[in-house]
Amino acid sequence: MSILVNKQSRIIIQGFTGVEGTFHASQMIEYGTNVVGGVTPGKGGTMHLDRPVFNTVTDAVEKTKANVSLIFVPPAYAADAIMESADAGIKLIVCITEGIPTKDMVIVKNYLSSKDCRLIGPNCPGIITPGEAKVGIMPGFIHKPGTIGIVSRSGTLAYEAVDQITKIGLGQSTGIGIGGDPIIGTSIKDAVQLFMNDPATEGIVMIGEIGGDMEADAAYWIKENSKKPVVSFIAGATAPKGRTMGHAGAIIGGKNDTAEAKKQILRDCGVFVVDSPADIGKRMFEVIKK
Amino acid sequence: MNLHEFQGKNILKQFGVQIPEGIVIENPNDAVEAAKTIQSKTGTSIWAVKAQIHAGGRGKGGGVKIAKSLEEVKEFANSIIGMQLITPQTNAKGKKVYKVLIEENIYYSGEFKPAEFYISILLNRSRNRNMIVYSTQGGMNIEEVAEKTPHLIFKEEIDPTVGLQAFQCRKIASNFGLKDKAFKEMVTFVASLYKAYIESDASLVEINPLFKAADNRIIAADAKVVIDNNSLFRHPDISLMRDLNEEDPTEVEAGSFGLNYVKLDGNVGCMVNGAGLAMATMDIIKLSGGEPANFLDVGGSANAKRVEEAFRIILKDPNVKAILVNIFGGIVRCDRVANGVVDAYKNIGTINVPIIVRLQGTNSIEAKQIIDGSGLKVFSAINLEDAAALVKKVLN
């Protein structure tokens, strides 16, 4: 078992024939992911990577029965691409694009609130169920099928956690990178809830960072509903106030969104917090074996 | 992107927001001419001379002066332009002032009692919607107001489907306790301010004080406008407002090579791929007994050219006693990055600080062999834990 994506997922790529889309679609296919086609407006009717290209997501859904879409569209057009997928009835939309204006995402988020779908991202590495489906840009080989659910706001830091979990012998049920922007589709809490309800997930790694109150939201929910151990690292203890640290969302505003404040809230809610990112795997191994 | 007060006000004005009549100058010799022009338009014989830097609390550092004669305008312009302005929001060195804004005095006397309010528009991240935050307690530090008298802070959320509605503007004017002309002016002001916020893709518009003059005009006495960097591709006019004088020259140079660099005050430099891992690496440095000297994200393609530029930038900082390179090679192959590190090292010539290179991911073992066999003063590691131990070792 896993969450959101598996062997049966039928995946299309928006921005299929572009440089990024082509490279990552090839990697996904090589991993064994069920990529059923792609969308590039104006190139409908052609073939790319031995798969059909469509002009619109609606066409693609009709012909391929796709239920997952992965977006590699440039920032100026990405918001439109997300809404197109939602309108076409795609159930899971994963948006990799970095640099979408916040104003566009306010509109997207509002639009999606009346649709029956889930968005992951934008500005994220995507989602992977090891051995079944890699829907994103993460390196497939560091993952191993297993029992730990991983949710992270950061890409390479998620890889770090995945790698440690693999090397310590536990492996992942599913790994989700939710993205570093101020407005994203799936929150840490959303992902934690999905993992709590997934019978194949025995423990959860939650990687947060400075800025916003998503980690605290998840922590309060965990306190009330936790059935599984949660190990967490919060990046940015040494980040200066008021500066954007790469991710647009990673900026310390008020006093409750510093790394220290977040860690304290997490500890108070029963989460196993590690101060060093080098200890994520070890700590999970300890708590899961208890 | 942060804007100067005069730039922010110029944007607001385009959307009908009332601002004081003002002229920005760089040369103190233009001060009197500017003051006279403002006088001919408004009749004022008192002017505000305001330093234009990207930091608040300018008045506290002597960067805002009220001139009661043309001589004083000249005198204040002379003293403020070129000064090193230290405010509660700058560091101890302060910021050099290159420009001043000369404005008409809006604190004139008249029929009604003047008042200072506060208003800002920003994203409410937990609700994914924009909101207007406002208070009758203007002209002071809003964080303090929020802490001491939270009941005096009001919030109005905007529904993205329909945008800001007239009734919401009326609610705000009413909560400010206004009536008659001031009420009507405030309704228009709020609507215009929101339009400016949306149309210019701002991430923050803050007016403090929002001023009610003695003739009941509603005027933005100050303006802090921050534009969403991600939106600049559709605002070429605003992109041109970027002031490199306000930025760290090394950060600007790093940006031109596609490196995301933030200078810090510590002794261990770092070079990392990915923002989250970069922050985590800074944390590791601290836990190993050092202090991070910078944040540096080399991005997805950590090729030799970029690695070399990153080294050069980190080494400009004389406080750097060691450098930790932490690359999680996903799709990028570690052996290529390792070759890049070796080439960069050789191109730079002499590097007098120890370098710790941690390469993890595809071909990490080959990468370690390349580093170890290079004969350079470079320590290599594969696991993060080992890298942390090496940092500790070189610092001792």
Q: Could you please describe the fold and organization of this structure?
A:
The complex is a heterodimer of chains A (about 290) and B (about 400). Chain A is of the alpha/beta class and about 290 residues long. Chain A has nine helices and 14 strands. The longest helix of chain A has 13 residues, at about 20-30. With about 400 residues, chain B is of the alpha+beta class. The longest helix of chain B has 20 residues, at about 180-200. The two termini of chain B are about 40 Å apart.
What would the keywords be for this entry?
heterodimer; A: 290 residues; alpha/beta; seven-stranded mixed sheet; 9 helices; 14 strands; 34% helix; B: 396 residues; six-stranded antiparallel sheet; four-stranded antiparallel sheet; elongated
Largest interface: A-B, 58 and 53 residues
By oligomeric state, this entry counts as heterodimer
Number of strands of chain A: 14
Shape of chain A: globular
> Spans of chain B with pLDDT under 50 lasting ≥5 residues?
none
Mean pLDDT score of chain A, rounded? Answer: 93
Order the strands across the largest sheet of chain A as they lie in space.
Answer: 3-4-2-1-5-6-7
Report on the biggest sheet of chain B. 6 strands, antiparallel
Name the helicity range of chain A. Answer: 25-40%
